[in-house]
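Q: What does the predicted 3D structure of aldehyde dehydrogenase (NAD(+)) look like?
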Amino acid sequence: MDFSQDYVQIINGKSAPTEQTRHGVNPANKQALPPVPVATQQDLDNAVAAGKAAFETWSRTPFEERQKATIAYADAVEAHSAALVELLTREQGRPTEQAWMEVGGAPEWIRGLASIALPDEVIEDNEQNTVLNRYTPLGVVAAIVPWNFPIRLAVAKIAPAVLTGNVVIVKPSPFTPYCGLKLVELAQQFFPPGVVQSLSGDDNLGPWMTSHPGIDKINFTGSTATGKKVVQSASQTLKRVTLELGGNDPAIILPDVNVEKVADQIATFAFLNTGQICLNIKRIYVHEAIYDKFKEAMVKSVDGYVVGDGSQPTTTHGPIQNAMQYARVKTFFDDIEVQGWKAVAGGKIEESAGYFIHPTIIDNPPEDSRIVVEEPFGPIVPLLKWTDEKDVIERANNTVNGLGASVWGKDLDRAGKIAKQLQAGTVWVNTHFELSPLAPFGGHKQSGLGSEWGVDGMKAHCNAQVLFFKKTAA
Ligand code: NAD
């Protein structure tokens, strides 16, 4: 398979060309990338019909066979890693080394999920009754993927769907369609036609999918604003929904940390992927006793970053992925002057060949400022001072988001006690953004609904069905 050209959508096992095409843009140089299809409503109807037909057989295929096909798919994804890395950097902007992390994690995620079976649960078993709880697949799943992790988030939606006996239609983001389309094309070698399909569309396609009566579940990752529209639309047919949405993760730094080391790690997690991760650290609360030293150390790390084209070996931070996001992040930089914030690293955007912005730290802005309250989804982060433990916990929790949070300190008891009071789906002590396909991942509050991965994520692709055998009645 050639990953460098011929990007097609797959309906019922075959390429489904469209009259209209569109294209993505390489964010490092704003050059047009190759054409991709623009799906019509008829394409969606065809994919749903093919999915429904495939579901008849696939849902009755034994788990072990579905598992075997899925693991073979993971091996194939791994075998094509180098081509995927190159394509990911070109369409997403991520530096090569970090692209390897995303691509390398893809087969690991698929295999991890393939290790989770959902056997029937015996609720009661005696001379009179046997009562079982079974997990039966839902039908056609729509996997709606954002532009920041086009590979990991696609495979992490494909695998649980097909393992649980569902069929899946993958919709990559129009900003980053290329890797997603190739992943689905590759899947055709391992799954029967109609089991794993793709649609490549413009902004119409997502709403068509969420309102389509033939789709049974929406597995969505994206912004909180879009997530609300998804629920509204899906409610018309009571589709099952899983929503992985935006975050505004706090990190609380205790006074006993190794300042140099932790400041460097915090900078890494704040600016990884140029601040375009739902789980970037987005508010950094540093104890006042070490605030100045910590700030200095963090600035030193950030000043050493090399922002540029991700395909260059020296680049540590790539561009913002697209023009729309670049324009939004710029509004936070405009506010530096308007609001009188103090930038201690970065702070200015210079126009260039790509959507480049140097990582920027804002020194102790007011707690109610936009940079603290909103998710910029770009390389700009507030450093905030705290003195009282109860107060910093309240500030950390004072957000509509609840995706991730972390506490950093040598005193693990104290850090653990604080961690347990934070309102977030994943809370770390002395790290951030470490995930596992075996652990449920989801957001509290407006960061999501339900969870992906782990046993819970698999169950979210199923109806629970109770089978009640009355042994004595007949
Ligand atoms: P987005 O909400 O704009 O788009 C996400 C996907 O939804 C894209 O495929 C898009 O085409 C589609 N879409 C857009 N409008 C739609 C609609 N009305 N109905 C159905 N689908 C629609 O998000 P984005 O800008 O691509 O991604 C960035 C956001 O995603 C950030 O807020 C980030 O925090 C969040 N995110 C969350 C997670 C998580 O796991 N919680 C992971 C990555 C990103």
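A (community wiki): The structure tokens above were generated from the sequence. The longest strand covers residues 129-137. The two ends are 58 Å apart (CA to CA).
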